[in-house]
Structures are given as structure tokens and as C-alpha cells.
Amino acid sequence: MNELRYLILGVTASGKSRLAFDLAKTLGGEIISIDSMKVYKKMDIGTAKPPLERRNAVKYHLVDVIEPWQPFSVSDFLELSEQAASEILAKDKPVIGAGGTAMYIKNMLYGLFDGPGSDLGLREELKKRFKIEGHGKLHQELSEVDPVAAEKIHPNDTRRVVRALEVFKLTGKPISSFQTQFSAPEPDPRWRVIGLRRDKDVESRRINARVRKMVDAGLVDEVRELFNMDKPLSKQAQVAIGYAEFRDYFDGNITLDKAIEKVKINTRRLAKGQRTWFKSFRGVEWLDFGEDASSQEILDKTMALIQGSE
């Protein structure tokens, strides 16, 4: 059975999605999207989902799997992504993972840490508090007892925030004091991780151009339709970059140009955060490209890397 798993990572707008498609076509593989927002239906333009012609040519997994009002956790992603990988490998095809949601990638490579002991009653109590009080309150509580873990765990990551607080309440020690995934010696050896990288200024220009392209493609109307749905967006979807910035525009508080500029700024901030995350990942084989690198050049260099080590 084919056991090849390739993971293509890079900051937003780096070209990783196009490379994943070209690689899947070349190798006869299927793609697993590693993106916390592409899982949502109806959120198409702002999440830069692959166009239909690509999805008709190559099978994609974890795209359009839930409604925009439904929650989606890291553990949900890990379960579905491993299921998808097993299905692909059973067809004797290589797995091509692609995305920039660093929190998902981190857990794919290093796993979720369970730590010492558990108390299901306490865990359920914390989950109820999470739903009632919101992610901000519990994450703030975690930051007070374990600032190291709080810095690593996203406020929306219910499972890990709850687990970290559970460990502290059970042991009196912060979860970061144990050997966790944050200090895991090596990533999951099943994945070969290839990273796309460009100069920061180049990546910023690519981000700005992509935001403008999204607006021209109808992003504003897409966001308006989502905000006007009968059911409110999930907490995760509400804070999605490319969507949340338009609420003030629809409320008449800022101009459209200002909202678009906020999308650009927040997307560049996202890229900055991704760079920070990726620096902590071990075993990434980085490929550096200039501003004018074509998709064919990127594919050729990637294939040379893969074939050169076979």
C-alpha cells in the first residue's frame, strides 16, 4: 500500500494551494485541506477555496463539511483528517495535506497531549462554562495559571483550553510543566513537510493583491448573505479574517475602502503569526521562491526535492 503523506505549508497567499493541486495531479494523489475556515459551507471567496474546476479534477477532503453556524474544533479536524488520510491510502494514493492553519498543523505533527489523569465531571463542568461564559473568559483564566500554555493555545480551541484548566485543577501544576506537544522531540514521521517561503515584502504584496481579487469576485455580497442568515455564524466563523471586518461597514460605521484595508492588515498579521508558528516546526524542508516564480517552477523544484531523496 502507498504510505506517502506530503504536507505543504506556508503563510496565506504563498501559493501552497496551487502547489498542492499540481502535486496531486502529478502524483495521482488526493488533497486534505488543513484550514479552519474552508470547512464551512457558503464561505467560499473569503476563504480562498479551490475553484470548482480544481475540485472536479482532484478530490479534496475537509472542504465544505459543515454549516457556517456549526462549531468545529481541533479534535474534530484531527478525527476527520486521519479518516480522510486512511481513505486515500486505502486507494493506494499519496496524501497531499495543504494549509496554513498552524494550530491544526501543530496537532497533526505533534499530537494532542492528554497529560496526567482526568475527571470527566470536571471536564464537563468546564465545557459548560466555555459555552456560557465564552472562550475569552476561560482563556483569560488559563493565562493567569499557565501563561506559557495560554500563549500556545488559541482561545477558540475548546478542547485544549478545557484540558489545560482540568490538569491544573487536578494537579495544581500547569500543563506546560509536563512534557507536552509543545516540546515534542520529533514530528509525526509519517508526514514529509515541505514549506513554501518568499520574502516578507513579496508575501505582503501577494496578500494585498489577493484581497483585492476577492473583493472583485464578490466578497462583500458573500459576507452580507452570511450575516443575513436566519442562524448566526458560529464563534469560529464570526472571527474569520475577510468576514468580521465588514460588520462595521454594514453597520455604517466605516467606509467600504476602510473595511477592505482592515482585511489586508489583519491578513498580513495572520501571516506574521504563521511565520512565528512555523519557526517552531521541526523537519520542514523549505523552498524559497522569488516574486515572479511560476507555478510550474514551484512544482518542478518540489518534484526535484521529492525525487532527489527517494
Task: Give a structural overview.
- The protein is built from 14 helices and six strands.
- It is of the alpha/beta class.
- The protein has a six-stranded parallel sheet with strand order 3-2-4-1-5-6, with helices on both faces.
- Helix 1 (16-27) crosses helix 14 (295-308) and helix 6 packs across helix 8.
- The longest helix is centred in the C-terminal third of the chain and has 24 residues, at 256-279.
- It starts with a strand and ends with a helix.
- The model is unreliable at 179-184 (pLDDT under 50).
Coarse shape = globular
Widest sheet: strand order? 3-2-4-1-5-6
Catalogue the unreliable spans. 179-184
Distance between the termini: 16 Å
Could you say how many structural domains there are in total?
A: 2
The pLDDT mean sits at: 90
Fourth-tier CATH superfamily name of the largest domain: P-loop containing nucleotide triphosphate hydrolases
CATH topology of the largest domain: Rossmann fold
SSE pattern, N- to C-terminal: EHEHEHEHHHHHEHHHHHEH
Structural class: alpha/beta
CATH architecture of the largest domain: 3-Layer(aba) Sandwich
The helicity comes to 40-55%
Name of the CATH first level of the largest domain: Alpha Beta
